[in-house]
TrEMBL record:
This is S1/P1 Nuclease. Keywords: Disulfide bond, Endonuclease, Glycoprotein, Hydrolase, Metal-binding, Nuclease. One of its GO terms (molecular function) is nucleic acid binding. It comes from Polaribacter glomeratus. One of its GO terms (biological process) is DNA catabolic process. InterPro entries: PLipase_C/P1_nuclease_dom_sf, S1/P1nuclease.
Amino acid sequence: MNFKILLLIPFFFFTKSSSDDAVFWGKNGHRVTGKIAEKHLSRKAKKCIDKILKGQSLAFVSTYADEIKSDRKYSKYYPWHYVNMDLDQTYEQAEKNPEGDLVTGINTCIAVLKDKKSTDEEQNFHLKMLVHFIGDLHQPMHIGQKEDKGGNSIQVEWFGSGTNLHSVWDSKMIDDWEMSYIELADNADDLSKKQLEAIEKGSIIDWVNEVHVVTKEVYNSVKVGENLRYNYSYDHFGTVRTQLQKGGIRLAKVLNDIYN
């Protein structure tokens, strides 16, 4: 093999992993949201969900929508993981993807789960997808700009290693905390009834627009190529925890509305 090609191989893998490192909350993030949701479910909703998922937890199924990405027969669902919006737009103003987006995905899942004619298989599939999509909605970079693929093309460093802005918010800060999803869920903030009601309030689109405000802050939090370290996590991990908790509370609200 040509010596120059040998030199290029490790560089290719480095740049590939750096730009495609992640396009979703990491596994721990989704599981945190699922675990928190379980704490806020009504008794009736818990019973219905347990039957549909055949005993599997919301935390366990929360990563399903990412696991099936390697199967091409599910490729039509890929655009449902995100929304592309300019930073100065609301969802209502943004150009819509003809293949659908996060809002499309969530509303489709809700419709199927409410439809009494849906088969057991359809119920199982769309419940697992819904759990994931509500989690994705609360990851700020899932409501990012089209031109940089929600921050996937914004190259930065995490403690000196190449990565991208999307990955930092998906998993780098969460993994660096070195806590299990159960520990993170159990240490979510204590909220008053009034605070819970405020989080539950609004529509799916309202939530998208709310998270998009955080998205703008994330874009403004780094410079291309910047080496992000302890101070970045110190400044922003609280926002990650808040988004995970809101995702769990709102997932429970949607599920309670469906099954009560």
